[in-house]
Design brief:
The protein has one domain: Rossmann fold, CATH 3.40.50.150. It is built from 5 helices and 8 strands; from the N terminus they run E-H-E-H-E-H-E-E-H-E-H-E-E. The chain starts with a strand and ends in a 12-residue tail after the last strand. An 8-stranded mixed sheet has the order 1-4-3-2-5-6-8-7, with helices on both faces.
Length: 218
């Protein structure tokens, strides 16, 4: 796992912090996937996005439960999961592990297939030419940031690829309104839209010929 630091953000470890003891094993329930990434795994397989040329992108990883599921699939098809997260979530426990420490432990078995950009998504710099067949954004809920994440995803999404966005149609109406405005703005480029109402998930396909179903399985 390679981590690209942001020089404009605070670092996780202070100068006074030295060699913490090894973390105890994290119980699955402590880093569970609360979003329901099975929806995305099913979509990737159904649309054969794992056969497209692009990697996977995740904006906002929480504790890594969902990342681990994506990375397990990515490993099986020789892809990478690119994760953008500043890792600044306060877990309200001074003595306990940090968000980043839990994430790294949860995703350790698939770390070779995970690229972490420890940055704010508005400042993240992805490699030139990098494209994605699937992306999921569940970052900052500010409407301006929601639109920014949509645009970041959309610029990098391959034709025929799919993007997922969380908190759509739930208890954050400003997020829903921001995403609706993006659907209107990019309507000419959108192929299909699906809504998973019980999970507050919006799925959007980018119009184009090069969907995974059109590609050879070789």
């Amino acid at each position: 796992m390679y981590t690209f630091e942001s020089t404009s953000l605070l670092q996780f470890a202070s100068a006074a912090r030295v060699s913490p003891p090894a973390l105890p094993p994290i119980e699955t329930s402590e880093a569970d996937d609360l979003t329901g990434y099975e929806v995305f795994i099913d979509l990737i397989r159904r649309e054969r996005l794992d056969r497209m040329a692009g990697d996977f992108l995740e904006i906002g990883c929480c504790l890594g439960g969902g990342t681990a599921k994506l990375a397990k699939l990515a490993t099986s098809v020789d892809k990478q999961v690119w994760v953008i997260d500043p890792f600044d979530t306060n877990l309200s426990s001074e003595a306990g592990p940090t968000q980043e420490e839990i994430f790294r432990q949860v995703t350790a078995p698939w770390s070779a297939s995970i690229q972490v950009l420890k940055q704010d998504s508005t400042r993240a710099r992805l490699p030139d030419g990098l494209r994605f067949g699937f992306a999921f954004a569940d970052g900052n809920r500010d409407p301006v940031r929601v639109k920014s994440d949509f645009q970041l995803v959309w610029r990098r999404l391959l034709p025929g690829g799919w993007a997922g966005f969380h908190d759509y149609g739930g208890d954050l109406p400003d997020v829903t309104a921001a995403l609706d405005s993006m659907l209107e703005q990019y309507a000419a480029e959108i192929g299909r839209v699906e809504k998973i109402e019980d999970r507050w998930i919006l799925l959007v396909q980018k119009r184009g010929e090069a969907s995974g179903k059109d590609q050879s399985s070789s």
